[in-house]
Amino acid sequence: MPDMTTNQNVQIRSAFPKCVRIDSKPHLFCPGCGHPEVLKALGFAIDELGLQAKTAFGIDIGCSLLAWDYFNMDTVETHHGRTIPTMVGFKRANPDAVAIAYVGDGGAYAIGLSHLMNAAVRDEKIFVIVVNNAVYAMTGGQEAPTTLPGMKVSTAPSGADEHYMKAPEMIRNVNPTAFVARGITSVQPALKMLMKDALKFYLDGKGFVFVEVLSQCPLNWKTMDKPQETFDFLEKTLAKAYPVKRY
Ligand SMILES: Cc1ncc(C[n+]2csc(CCOP(=O)(O)OP(=O)(O)O)c2C)c(N)n1
Ligand code: SF4
Question: Running DSSP on this structure, what letter comes out for residue 160?
Answer without folding.
Answer: -
